[in-house]
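User: Can you help me understand a structure? I only have the sequence.
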Amino acid sequence: MIIGIDIGSTTTKAVSIDADKVINKIKTKAMDAPTSAAGALGKILLEYSIPVREVEKIMITGAGATKIRSDLFGIPTEKIDEITAIGVGGMFLAGRENIIITNIGTGTAIIEAKKDRIAHIGGSGVGGGTIMGLSKLLLMTSNFKGIMKLAESGNLNQVDLLLEDIMETDISFLRREATASNFGKTLDSAKHEDIALGILNMVYQVIGVLSVFAARSKGIDRVVVTGNGSDNSIGKDILSFITGMYAIAFEYPTNAEYTTAIGAGLSGHRETFFKEKL
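Assistant: Let's start by predicting it. Here is the structure, written out as tokens:
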């Protein structure tokens, strides 16, 4: 059994992998990387009654991995770079190679993944961290569930300048209800609900359009969405709207938020994975 751990800037995830199957998964939080890694490992071992002797090795990745300088709990511990982990995990969850992966975390990374090449082709500092930061400034909250609840009853017409506000017909392939300028209207009557939806709309539009450009540049018509931001109902609706304009589909594989941890674990025997699974 191999344990894959993704030590993120806000959340640490761990998965146990046996015979190229994801058996268990957990999430945890801590203030520093060593505590986060040890906590995630301890939690998955205890919660699922996994004997330490059954763990062959631990593969770590993510922003905090560089701060781990020794084996965890005496188990051989190796580092794998985050881009490779996302690529391997994304191909495993998608069940195919030659894909574009948009990994939405605190920021957003866009990756091209093939058997023989995993490359970071772009991305943006716009991501989950942007949602939290702007919500703290504009809504006086950084509670994600609260932000989502507000956004559910928001009205974009209160904050975004839409094409229909300035055009009487569609322009090019853009429908009249498409955004001309995020927060370009912002009426005095705008409520917190409207602002919350405007923040989410802006973030996912940026992510979606960048993903479209990346996919088109590689001649691919689908994007695999992974990371914490992949499990967001409002975000999915926004990306679906982008699909309608650009004809690039967005996919959300099961366990997408654990992609990086899964990829780290599978990288522990990557050659076998590629030979047998793809």
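Now, to help you interpret it: The chain has a mean pLDDT of 92. The first helix runs from residue 33 to 47. Let me know which part you'd like to focus on.
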